[in-house]
Amino acid sequence: MTSPQSRQPVDARHARLMTGVSLLAAIGTLVIWFTDRQQGLATTWDQWTIPMLSALYLSISVLHIVKPCCMPWALPPTLIATSIYLLVAIHLATGGQSLAQLYAATSLAQLIPVFYVIAFVSWPRGGAWISGLTYAGLLAQYLFSLQLPTPTGGWSDVHLLTQKTLLASVLIHPVCILALSFIVHLRGQLSTSQQEAFKGKERFLAMLSHEIRTPLQAMLGSIDLLALKLHGNAETRALDRLRNSATQLDTHLRDVTEFTRLEDPALRIQADTFDLTRLLNDLRDDWIERAQAKGLTLTIDIAPGDQAALQAVRADATRVRQIVCNLISNALKYTLVGGVTVHASLSRQHRGRGMTIVVEDSGIGIAAQHLETIFQPYVRLEDARALRADGTGLGLAVVQRLVDRLGGRLHVESHPDRGSRFTVELPMADNG
Ligand code: ADP
Q1: From the alpha carbon of 379, which atom of ligand 1 is closest?
Q2: Fold of 271-427
């Protein structure tokens, strides 16, 4: 039975959310415009501007998918256009000479807080500015409406209602903007203290790692020297046990330090152009001895049509290497017969602007109920312990975090006793 498991990185989830919101806004405005027109509630201003706004929201949602890097430039003009639309529509409604105008004033006054929320979420730096300016415009409309002569006849009630709606908005909106600013401020504070906590933890771990690993390296060196002098079987076995334990301790310390470093939200990804086929062949050279010692094969399989493109991919080479290295290490650890194959191709998911790396083994496999848990830190399965394989339970947690950081996806399929297949989909980083 195949049991796939995949996770989505936080950035990808945010991008999807923003795509959904802009798409919903595009459809929503168009539907409201259509029904308003049917009922004669659309003003002359609405006739052209709403379809244009809807088209703008639609292009923003498409841009989110095809060119997410352009969003910081595309969002401010969209928000400014929306703000101008809202203010002009309210300005035209303040005369209150028709039901359509009264409807425009009341419905838009309700819509403006939604605009504030979207502005704060999508444009964290400028959200407060655009919301404040929109509010200032609304306040000006209200003060302007006070100067207008009260219409005579039946329209005086409509005029009064419009004014009351504007007054309520003018009184309530500052609370809304203040609350949103406060939330943004709290988020900022939270991330600053989070970063400080991470820095402290990292400093402590770096110190601990240095203090323990330096004497450990000296111990490993001495063990090797001692091995040259010992000849008896019992002594050699005791020394091997000592070497294994010291190596294991060294691996544990390295894994814990690495895992903690990856928790740091300020960790930077360094994108560069590199040759993926070469990186994979280098990794094969690093691991082939270990594979052969276990009687296993280790093969690199590059998709024939993608060879040229994979020789110049853009991503963080060190992180990609770490991901594949951890997966190969696991595949060799948990395979007793057969071998391990690493397949590389251009990613269909990213329409050729990404890479797919698959590490496949013919090993012990993973039961379906454990596929959720193996990515959690410090989780080791019984089968792994039974094999007496070294490990900290951090290898896959590190892989998961790295893939998240690179904006990719990790997916596993496994059949107990038949093998596992870990698929990593990584987008290419943008230039510059
Ligand atoms: P470890 O240091 O124990 O290898 P990992 O986080 O890398 O920690 O993996 C967690 C657990 O997932 C392992 O202990 C093992 O039980 C299981 N596992 C990981 N990779 C494989 C694989 N290729 N085949 C079978 N089991 C695996």
Answers
A1: 10
A2: Heat Shock Protein 90 (3.30.565)
